[in-house]
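Hey, I'm writing a tutorial for new members on how sequence and structure tokens pair up, and I'd like a real worked example in the thread rather than a made-up one. If someone can provide the structure for the chain below, I'll link this post from the tutorial.
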Amino acid sequence: MASDECTDARGGTFKVGAVVVGASRKRLRMSSARSGVLVRALTRTAVVLGLAWCVGACHKGSFPPLASVRFDASRAGESVSIPVTITPDNANIHNVYMVGFYIKDGSLHGPADQLRGSPPKARLYLRVRIFRQVEGSEIPVDVNDYDFDYDIRTDTYTFLPSMCERGTDIAYVSSSGQLRDVAHMQVVSFRFPDYGRYRIEVSTVSDMPILGAVPTWLTVEREFPHGK
């Protein structure tokens, strides 16, 4: 692939700096680093509604995760390697998948509340790398997050370029909603390029003490809301 192109999780390519609207999430991505364009149409209320669209519905009729592991995200230096084998019986490579992050916390103003909101009071970032294992080699798989900047003075959101554009493997963990006492969050979205063996590597990049007293875990599963 040419160096000035990236591949998004839905299989399309786009020039660096272009505006991209995802087919299923309809999330606007804007390369502010080059154009400096701000998304003024997204008010605080609109973003809150966008983040909460799947509350109570994320797992309604859901597909079982391909993998689920406990993960302590409260301290820097924690890491986990998750092996996954993809077959036509457990996955469809035409669908979008994600690394999910879950917090068991239903308290008011607790960790889940602090990581939600518009803008959130705290932000969690994780390093994520996904590899396809082929004949003893590991081939990186493109992943993407939903990071943004917020200007409190103008109540303006600027959606950042993709991880590929930013040249980073550090992903912003974005809120997707809450079902009872479990907060649902998304780390990255991606597609499996083919059936076979994969390894998902996740690690913390900084301390997050607010998560020290609550159970947290990672999943590999279909992207919310389980669409293509």
